[in-house]
């Protein structure tokens, strides 16, 4: 069955919902928001591991146009953030546009009609199929297999991707993993029915996710082996309850909430001076992190193990008050010898030492360098987006890609942050896309495609700035690809990005008019 919509948005996180809200505000109603999951919230619905919370203050990590006086903590827990996003979807009457349980298998640009064909299937059926075939999300599907769910197509003039860069889980490739006889799951795919009591648990990874769930698992598990490849820099988390009186004040006097939000914004923004300007400033952060280790861990050997040897800020700086105390517990071992193989119910380290394990939890992060799977987005001439990105993902203002007309990305290449709230960046991009749509309508353009040289010049200037940043000081992180190119982070103040995305700069685009007789409005999807 073929359906149509003017705009197809992929994802219902901050990006997809924010885009929907702003489209409605601009008078657009003919759009659809496709969500693979069974509820809205994006990463805040998908990630529900114990301890999951935001590491940016909630007063800032929320929409500027929908500030929430009711956050119960400085750093809200996952459940509260997901509930906030759901309430936004309902308040702005977005649910009628949202198609839940809808997996986007592909999107292909049709040069004749200058529009997109989006291919979808029922994500529940796809999940069952993957389970049967032992496939992980992101694994390539064999399209000839008769057991695959049924795919259907619909047309959209414009596609806006709000998929985020951290949605496809990364699994380690370890010899013998397929022989493991126990339970295993990724942090994004938490099994809350699994009881850790009396179990020997192995956790692989010590990133932002693991440092949040390790303390929770360590409370229940008989034993926890933490396989650490690289210790992260961790500073204290300035978290606390937001008292009922404070919440009442925020409700009664919204300007106080806004002032609080602004103060957080400028405090975080100051960090850019260290990240991009002069990494030596970050020595202050390093001293704070070293003191944190000394304060929370008595054992010298454990202190040594968890102390990073790379520049503070090169990888994401983490915040936690309960991670180090959890590592110091008697039932937790931090193992740094690496994993050679898995054999039955044993993990064998690189020294040949075997350790029995009932459950392996992968805290191994996401495929940030391939934010869009191969074979998913095909632009002009059928080109796969991943082929266009052979040298590393890049876009113009993180939003548009040469060869992919009418395709906009939110949280696209080099829009990520190491210092502040992504919601600010998302709102900047949404403003840019809405302005593009308005200009397309005003001038009768059927398609807009960023010019190759505009994209190249933009990226040359970004990478010149990134060259001096702390992220290029030699550590290995998901910010940087295997060729050393930082494809993920924005190298500057966030207000500079906002200035750049204030208006759709049509001069940098090839704008094609609507062909004669082809200008009729597409019927709404129902
Ligand atoms: P991550 O930061 O990429 O961490 C992955 C961890 O797994 C690292 O410690 C990595 O070690 C380790 N690892 C990966 N492959 C391995 C292998 N084959 N063998 C051994 N260890 C391996 O992933 P994440 O913790 O899921 O976080 C990803 C991002 O999500 C964060 O940086 C952040 O942007 C976001 N996040 C945000 C929040 C929040 O509060 N807002 C919470 C969670 C996550 P190496 O360091 O050696 O590579």
Strands, helices and their partners?
Elements: E1 3-10, H1 14-25, E2 31-34, H2 43-46, H3 78-91, E3 98-99, E4 102-110, E5 115-122, H4 123-133, E6 152-161, E7 183-186, E8 200-204, H5 210-220, E9 223-227, E10 234-235, H6 244-252, H7 254-269, H8 272-277, H9 283-296, H10 300-306, E11 318-319, H11 323-327, E12 332-335, E13 339-343, E14 346-349, E15 354-356, E16 359-362, E17 377-378, H12 385-388, E18 407-409, H13 422-443, E19 445-450, H14 452-466, H15 494-500, E20 509-513
Parallel strand pairs: 1-2, 1-6, 2-3, 4-17, 6-18, 7-16, 8-9, 8-16, 9-12, 10-11
Antiparallel strand pairs: 4-5, 5-6, 13-14, 14-15, 19-20
Bound molecules: NADP nicotinamide-adenine-dinucleotide phosphate (NAP).
The site of NADP nicotinamide-adenine-dinucleotide phosphate (NAP) has 23 residues, from loops.
> Mean pLDDT, rounded to whole units?
94
CATH topology of the largest domain: FAD/NAD(P)-binding domain
Low-confidence parts: 518-526
Shape: globular
Enumerate the distinct ligands: NADP nicotinamide-adenine-dinucleotide phosphate
Total E-strand runs = 20
The CATH H-level superfamily of the largest domain is FAD/NAD(P)-binding domain
Largest beta sheet, briefly? 8 strands, mixed
